[in-house]
Design goal:
With 186 residues, this protein is α+β, with helices and mostly antiparallel strands. The protein has a single domain, classed as Jelly Rolls, CATH 2.60.120.10. 23% of the residues lie in helices and 34% in strands. It contains 5 helices and 11 strands; from the N terminus they run ββαβααβαβββββββα. The strands form 2 sheets. Strands 1, 2, 3, 4, 6, 7, 8, 9 and 10 form a 9-stranded antiparallel beta sheet that branches. Strands 5-11 form a two-stranded antiparallel ribbon. Strand 1 and strand 2 form a beta hairpin.
């Protein structure tokens, strides 16, 4: 189940927890972040190609593409046996921004986004069916866990894809990891 916890930036152990998807969407929209739940328009198999996965969500994607003028889409998968999982996890764990939206739709699995738009930190546990669109300039980081297991559709305005601008703020070190967050809220 999707989960949003909202923490004061200097008190990571204090949190308000929200589990209702509509309430999550409203709370995130208040800081400019889009959260939606999508359902596949057609069935696909676990070994479906990138094209088949994208086709299953094409109508929902088209709405965002038209609204935000995204130019490219792809599907990324990370599994527990990925040889570079430690290196990839470290790359995403530091607070950063982007010059464009960061859009992730979770086709399978889950991951934890940390959004730092103001003096609060929003932890968004995204699971299958969740879309999160983080606007350009919003400070954030992502934890896929020690044993990543997810497949996501990504949308980009810049054909070069994911380009991070790290803030240098060590705030991510003070907040619970993916595994710690799951343990606290399961």
């Amino acid at each position: 189940m999707s989960l949003l916890t909202i923490h004061p930036e200097n008190r990571p152990d204090e949190a308000v927890a929200i589990r209702d998807p509509e309430t999550i969407a409203d709370a995130l929209w208040d800081v400019g972040v889009l959260f939606e739940r999508w359902t596949a328009e057609q069935a696909f198999t676990p070994d479906a190609s990138q094209e088949e996965v994208i086709s299953a969500y094409q109508s929902s994607m088209n709405r965002l593409i038209d609204r935000y003028e995204f130019r490219t889409a792809d599907v990324i998968s990370l599994r527990p046996d990925h040889p570079d999982k430690v290196k990839l996890r470290e790359k995403f764990l530091s607070e950063h921004t982007h010059a464009e939206f960061e859009v992730r739709f979770f086709v399978e699995g889950k991951g934890l986004f940390y959004l730092h738009p103001d003096d609060r930190v929003f932890l968004v546990l995204c699971e299958q069916g969740d879309l999160l669109s983080v606007p350009a300039g919003v400070k954030h980081w992502f934890d896929m866990g020690e044993h990543p297991d997810f497949r996501c559709i990504r949308l980009f305005s810049d054909p070069e894809g994911w380009i991070a601008h790290y803030t240098g703020n060590p705030i991510a070190e003070r907040f619970p990891t993916f595994e710690q967050h799951l343990a606290r809220h399961s």
